[in-house]
Design goal:
The protein is of the alpha+beta class. The protein contains ten helices and ten strands. Helices cover 51% and strands 16% of the residues. It is elongated, with a radius of gyration of 21 Å. The structure holds coenzyme a persulfide (COS).
Length: 378
């Protein structure tokens, strides 16, 4: 039922504006206001704070359906529910949830900010610093964050910096890393450069500037100095969302190619009946099904981890993202090939899927990082 609901929304509301938003790099903020009406933006927040918890497979299905039409909106949503809301649900105090989870289940948008110019894959190499103020009421944050999805659209950020007063700081590589909840209006916080990107162009990716940014001590999320595990755990969760996004991209590209191959004729018959195209389509469908099974398996593992105390789902999440990301890229490339010249122009959506697919092999941990995580479990 939810798959159909989201598919309807995507095919009507998102499909109508995605080309223009992609061309002009417009964030989907007005589409978000409509989406909020469906009540699916609080699925990782407890009911008492205005949320509507839904199981993890359904979360993946929602992202998959959004990405099948609009991969930019899918990541906008995935970061809001996964990296921001879920992290606050897992580590927030009652007061923090009353204040922020409530806003995030209203119309506010959430973001997550870990990466920096010199700390992407090597996340522990953060250089953003936090220092306790003399009166002990605030942490004062300084530094520059990068690659922040929803960077400009967001109202609330889960952001990581190193507390220099923490005993482990400078001892362990990730010593002092702490998670903070930041409001866009905080003094000393500003949104910096918006990136001009190859794909997912309707998702705003920005830098954030922290210039003596004053963050109340009650906005520390989890314990001071324990932020690296929070960051890694959040990525275990959200990588399933990116895998679902990749799955949706592959599905959207496949459907466009499949349809076209039945309509387009060469040598007196639809190209779908030429064996080389038939083989492509069969392989695409098979890869997509395999990716789908890995994504849903990871979602089940995640749910078992939180609800039944099952083992951590890092390996399953990384396998899903690795395979689904490669599937999205491979399927989108084959879709362009099947459409030929028409695959190379903006009249058909496969050109956009092709550009959008690439990022799923890069963000929230490159494919190389996923292999590293998997290898550590072997
Ligand atoms: N969940 C909870 N805690 C975790 C964890 C996880 N999945 N993975 C690691 N940790 C903890 C470890 O237990 C360790 O804790 P202690 O210091 O208490 O022992 C700590 O974190 C450091 O772990 P580790 O030594 O494995 O860290 P590394 O610096 O070697 O980093 C990788 C490991 C490469 C896996 C990590 O840096 C990573 O995921 N990088 C990619 C980051 C990323 O995805 N960036 C994109 C951001 S979104 S655009």
């Amino acid at each position: 039922m939810i798959r159909e609901l989201v598919r309807d929304f995507a095919e009507s509301t998102l499909a109508a504006t995605i080309s223009k938003r992609d061309d002009e790099q417009i964030a989907p903020t007005s589409e978000w206001q409509e989406f909020v009406e469906l009540g699916l933006h609080g699925i990782t927040v407890e009911e008492q704070y205005g949320g509507m918890p839904i199981d993890d497979v359904v979360e993946a299905i929602i992202i998959e359906e959004l990405a099948r039409v609009d991969p930019s909106f899918a990541v906008f949503y995935a970061v809001h529910v996964g990296l921001c809301c879920k992290t606050i649900t897992l580590h927030g105090t009652h007061e923090q949830k009353e204040k922020y989870a409530r806003r995030l289940t209203g119309t506010d948008v959430g973001a997550y900010s870990l990466s920096e110019a010199g700390a992407g894959t090597d996340a522990a190499a953060l250089s953003c610093k936090a220092k306790l103020s003399d009166d002990g009421k605030h942490y004062i944050l300084n530094g520059l964050k990068m690659w922040v999805t929803n960077g400009d659209s967001a109202d609330i950020y889960v952001l990581f910096a190193k507390v220099v007063d923490y005993p482990d700081y400078g001892v362990k590589k990730h010593g002092g890393v702490t998670a903070f909840i930041i409001e866009k209006e905080f003094a000393g916080f500003s949104v910096g450069k918006k990136e001009d990107k190859l794909g997912i162009r309707s998702s705003d990716t920005c830098s954030l500037e922290l210039d003596n940014c004053m963050v109340p001590v009650e906005n520390v999320l989890g314990e001071v100095g324990k932020g690296f595990a929070i960051a890694m755990n959040a990525l275990d969760n959200s990588r399933i969302g990116i895998a679902a996004q990749a799955l949706g991209i592959a599905q959207g590209a496949f459907e466009a190619a499949n349809k076209y191959s039945k309509e387009r004729e060469t040598f007196g018959k639809p190209i779908a009946h030429h064996q080389m195209i038939t083989a492509y389509l069969s392989d695409m469908a098979t890869q997509i099904d395999a990716a789908r099974l890995l994504v849903y398996r990871a979602a089940v593992a995640k749910q078992k981890h939180y609800e039944e105390g099952g083992p951590r789902h890092s390996k399953e999440a990384s396998m899903a993202k690795l395979f689904a990301g490669d599937t999205a890229m491979w399927v989108a490339e084959k879709a362009v090939q099947i459409l030929g010249g028409y695959g190379y122009v903006k009249e058909f959506p496969v050109e956009r899927f092709f550009r959008d697919a690439k990022i799923t092999q890069i963000y929230e941990g490159t494919q190389e990082v996923q292999r590293l995580v998997i290898a550590r479990h072997l």
